[in-house]
Amino acid sequence: MRIVVLVSGTGSNLQAVLDAVRDGRLDVEIAAVGSDRPGTQGVRRAADAGYPTFVVPFRDYPVRADWNRDLTEKVASYDPDLVLSSGFMRIVDESFIARFDGRYLNTHPALLPSFPGAHGVRDALAYGVKVTGCTVHWADAGVDTGPILAQAAVEVLDGDTEETLHERIKVQERRLLIETLDRISRGGIPKL
Ligand code: GRF
Question: What NCBIfam families does this protein's entry cite (predicted)?
Fold first, then answer.
């Protein structure tokens, strides 16, 4: 299974995938890693591991549809079986999802459908929930919507900050992501 991974930030979840592939715990082929912004640590991690990388800079496009088209074409040029959004902080449109046959996988640091959006950890903390977690799902063109494939719960502890809570969530998120990719690669999960 060929995958293209999209990142916007530090790429620690991407690193977990790279490590799992390197160690033979996950049998997928990483075709490329791309970003919507230059200079991300995620892209650097991929380059350091020897994978092709690309950037389609969102801020260089006055018209969102043009960015979406160029991103779609760039990702398609690697001929992926699945596209993984791993901390990719942009919404893509229907044509992107359709081009990859619904095989657009997203991870989110909250128990969807609660707390979608860019600040899922902060919002859960502000609401005062005692349990939050993470979700791996097939993404559609909405904000963190689409069929849920796997979830894990994480307890909110007294004194948690957004950072401490997010770090504990990410431990579960990485495990869930690798398990889910493994199941998909073995044909265990139907597409969107
Ligand atoms: C993850 O929690 C992801 O779900 C969220 O942003 C975080 C990305 O972290 N959207 P990293 O870039 O993999 O370190």
Answer: PurN
Answer yes or no: is the C-beta of 137 below 6 A from any ligand 1 atom.
no
Own/partner contacts of 70-74, CB < 8 Å, gap of 24 or more, are: 71/34, 71/36, 71/96, 72/96, 72/99, 74/34
Over the Cα atoms of the chain, what is R_g? 16
The alpha carbon of 122 is separated from its chain's Cα centroid by a whole number of angstroms, namely 18
Percent of the chain whose predicted confidence (pLDDT) is above 90: 96
pLDDT digits (tens, 9 = 90+) for 127-185: 999 999 999 999 998 899 999 999 999 999 999 999 999 999 999 999 999 999 999 99
Q: Which of 5, 6, 13, 134 to mutate to test the pocket of ligand 1 (most atoms within 8 A of CB)?
A: 13
Q: Measured from the CB, is residue 108 less than 6 Å from ligand 1? A: yes
**Global model pTM greater than 0.70:** yes
Annotated binding residues, as ranges? 11-13, 64, 89-92, 106
Banded pLDDT at 191 (limits 50, 70, 90): confident
- The residue whose C-alpha atom lies closest to atom 12 belonging to ligand 1 is 11
* pLDDT value, residue 85: 97
Q: Of the residues 108, 119, 137, 166, which is catalytic?
A: 108
User: Known catalytic residue: 108?
Assistant: yes
